[in-house]
Every structure is written in structure tokens, then in C-alpha cells.
Amino acid sequence: MKHLIVPLLILWAFVPFAIAEEQKPEVKPAGQPKIILKSGGQPLAEYRFADVPFKPYIDILRTPSGRNVLRDAPLDHLHHHGLMFAIAVNGCNFWEESNPKHGKEITVSVNPQPGTETPPPEISSLESELDWKNGELKTLLKETRKISVSQGEKVTLLDWQTTLKADEQGANLDKSSHHYFGLGLRFDPSMDKTGRFFSDSPDNNAVEKFRVDEKLIPCKWMAYTAPLNGEPVTVAVLGHSSNPIPTMAFTMGDLSRHFAYLGITLNLHRQPVEMKPNSSLTFRYRVAVWDGEATPETIAKIYDDYVQP
Fold first, then answer.
1. 3-state class (DSSP) for residue 190
2. Exposed, middle or buried, 178 (CB in 10 Å: 0-12/13-18/19+)?
3. What are the φ/ψ torsions at residue 28 (nearest 5 degrees)?
């Protein structure tokens, strides 16, 4: 019996190490759990990645005067995190967070790493590698995420690039995605119910409607202007012309008592995408934020500069 116990003890000693190596827990920073992105010495956005259970995201995005337009994890939708990107892959929902089977976007690396220097160095861009894992911690996709900030003429600019990479088995960006899955933005509560959406589409006509005021609108860019604590701001989301899926804006909250939301959906609920083995897809977006009401002409100029630098 003693001869049997010893080999079992040796085997048990190695099991935790094997499990830990297979699961690759998300990276923990040496300093703060977020990266503050600045331009010209001014903090413009904050990327939270280390203390998040399901996905990293931008939790603060500021106007040129420093006012934050985002809201994180409100009680009505705890899975709404400021500015985020999520879809469904192989039937696994990466948008919602209420079920253990829901997917997790796990940070494998992020550069530069936030440090403990005082004052912190100016960082205007970051690059991160993520593993998209299902509830069983199987990797379904890999992502390279690049985010940068800059200042235009009286405007804050945030560029978001996501490259999704399939393994040798491929991946299905499938119909289990809801009509709003993609890049999503939840506004500060003072901006709810009081704003208006407008876009480069003259009539802002929806090709599809859901519930009271949820709309899908094909466009180059979609903007929302509303009072932020009594003073107007404008937020526009632009889809790059090189994206493999045409820009389709999701809007809600301008006609009802519900909250306001703006997103660029990948429209997977109607047109799923099958990624071939070892293939990749790159999506590029720009978010522009103004103090005051920006005109369509001003936003169109930002769009032209973005797609034709």
C-alpha cells in the first residue's frame, strides 16, 4: 500500500501546475489595473483590463474639457461597460455576463504595462493580446487590440482596432449574436432620454427596428448629441471603409424612457461570418467626442481624415 501512495502523491503534486499552465490566467499588472491614455499631457481615456471578470474596456472617455461621457456597469445592465467590443463565437455569448457559460476576453499581454512612476509617463496608445475563451476555458478566437488617442481641433479622438484570428479549426461568428453585438457605447445617465441621433444618411432611415426605438441604420458614421450634466456634448462613432462588414449603426434611447445606447453592430444576426482556418478579420473604428453640438459637416471632415489620412 505504501508503494501505491508515493506515486499518487507525486502525481497530485504536479496536477495544479498542469492546470494553471493550460488555463493561462489573465495578466496582472505591476502597477495600476488600468492604462491612462493621454495626448499633450491631457488624460483622454482609461483602459481597464486587469480587474475585470469578463472583458477589458474603455471605462472613461473625456471631452476636450475633461468631462467623461461613459457609464460602466449600471444596475439595469451590469454587462454594459463604457466602450467595449463583443460578439458571439461558435454559439458562445461574449456580450452578456450573467451565465458561467458566457465567454471571457482574457488579456494575455498588454503593452505598455502600467507602472508605479509618479507622475506616470505619457502613454497615447496601447496594444494587447487577448484569448476569447468559452465557459470551459477553451480558446475560440485570438485578438490583437490596438487603441490610441489624439486631439484634433476641439475634439477628442480615440481609434480602436480589433484583429480577430481563428485557429486551424476556423471560427463561426454566428447568428446567436443579437442585433446590437459589436462595438458598443453606454452613455453617462445624464445623457439618457434627452438627446438625438444623426448620421451621414440624410433621412437616418432604419433598415430594421426592434422593440420601441431600437434601430439599425446603414451609414458611414453615427452621432449622438445630448446634455451632459446640463451642458451639451456630441459623440460620434465612425466605421472605417476597409472593414470587412459594412458599417451598421445600432441606436436606442431617443424616443423612449429607456437609456441611450450607440453601437456599430456586425449584423451577424442576419449575416453570420465563417472564418476559415488560420484566417483573420480586422475591424477599425474611430470615436470622436466634442464639447457642445458638432455639425454633420464637422463629423464628415473627421471621417474623411480617418479613411484618407
1. helix
2. middle
3. -110, 130
Per-residue pLDDT tens for 78-95? 778 899 999 999 999 998
Q: Pull the grid cell for residue 257.
A: 424612457
**31: its cell numbers:** 502597477
> Over 50: is that where the pLDDT of 67 sits?
yes
The angle formed by the CA atoms of residues 247, 253 and 254, to the nearest 5 degrees, is 90
- Of all residues in the chain, what percent are helix, strand and coil, respectively (each to 5)? 10, 45, 45
Average pLDDT across the chain, whole number: 87
CA angle in degrees (0–180, nearest 5) for 42-47-48: 135
Taking a C-beta distance cutoff of 8 angstroms, is the pair 25, 36 a contact?
A: no
For residues 116-152, one letter each, b for 16 or more C-beta atoms within 10 angstroms of the residue's C-beta and e for the rest, the string is: eeeeeeebeebebbbbbbbeeeeebbbbbbebbbbee
> What are the residue ranges of helices labelled H in the chain?
2-23, 296-307
Q: How far out from the chain centre does Cα 18 lie?
A: 32
Beta partners for 263? 184, 250
CA-nearest of 167, 173, 131 to 278 is 167
Distance of CA 57 to the CA centre of its chain: 6
**Domains of the chain, earliest start first:** 27-307 (2.70.98)
**CA angle, residues 154, 189, 283, in degrees to nearest 5:** 60
pLDDT per residue as tens digits for the range 46-57:
999 988 989 999
